[in-house]
Amino acid sequence: xxxxxxxxxxxxxxxxxxxxxxxxxxxxxxxxxxxxxxxxxxxxxxxxxxxxxxxxxxxxxxxxxxxxxxxxx
Length: 73
Hints:
By secondary structure, the protein is mostly helical.
């Protein structure tokens, strides 16, 4: 579990497809879906932690890009 694509593949195994249209929103919705899978007992703590780490990392990158884009406006 290293990339956002890996997280998407994991969610798809459970029938969860996320596409909101803006990458940062997709990441946020994926985090919510992963929380639900963990709460349902479908994901173990180790996998949950790895997935959340990837999502946090990707969210940080997107937030930085948004700030950079705003700074150049």
